[in-house]
Amino acid sequence: MKIVSACLVGIKCRWDGDSRPCPKVIDLMKRGKAIPICPEQLGGLTTPRFPAEQKGNKVFRKNKKDVTMEFKRGAEIGLKLAQMVNCKQAILKSKSPSCGSGEIPDGTFSGKLIKGDGVFAALLKKHKIKVLTEKEIK
After folding, report:
1. For position 76, what pLDDT does the model report?
2. Which of 50, 51, 81, 117 is buried most, with the most CB atoms less than 10 Å from its CB?
């Protein structure tokens, strides 16, 4: 079983209230091989919400509010769900402060990317769950 970012299956849970449907991820879900989750919603954040980016070990909204606790809580709940279904692989939304893998926004809200992992992606990797983005699936 795979864990996938809920926005990739068409669930409108992104910060802007939209989704980013990915046909390959939707197909996995339709075939019963994926469970969609949104770690930001699991952490208690609303949809829509102010955009957020990581700066060091913290996550801040564009309005400067620290939402690190919500991001960590959502990542921990997401990890528990992944472990409950014996997940070995996750397909997560690229360039996200939660789900990004390999590159994330730089924390300046300028659109620039830096090397790194989102809060959820990093936690999954720490627990030996392989993380891919929607751009890496075949």
Report:
1. 98
2. 117
Please provide residue 79's backbone torsions phi and psi, each rounded to the nearest 5 degrees.
-60, -45
Q: Which of 52, 40, 54, 53 is nearest to 12 (CA)?
A: 40
Determine the Cα–Cα distance for residues 61 and 68; give it in Å rounded to an integer.
Answer: 9
**pTM exceeds cut of 0.85:** yes
Strand ranges for the chain from DSSP E: 2-5, 34-37, 52-55, 58-61, 89-92, 101-105, 113-117, 130-133
pLDDT digits 0-9 by tens, 113-125 = 999 999 999 999 9
What is the spatial distance between Cα 6 and Cα 11, in angstroms, rounded to a whole number? 6
Sequence-distant (6+) residues with CB within 8 A of 22 are 8, 9, 134, 137
- Domain ranges across the chain: 2-133
Whether residue 86 contacts residue 33, with contact meaning beta carbons closer than 8 Å, is answered with: no
Cα(6)–Cα(29) distance, integer angstroms: 10
What digits encode the pLDDT tens for the residues 3-40? 999 999 999 999 999 999 999 999 999 999 999 999 99
Strands laid side by side in the 2-5 sheet: 34-37, 2-5, 89-92, 130-133
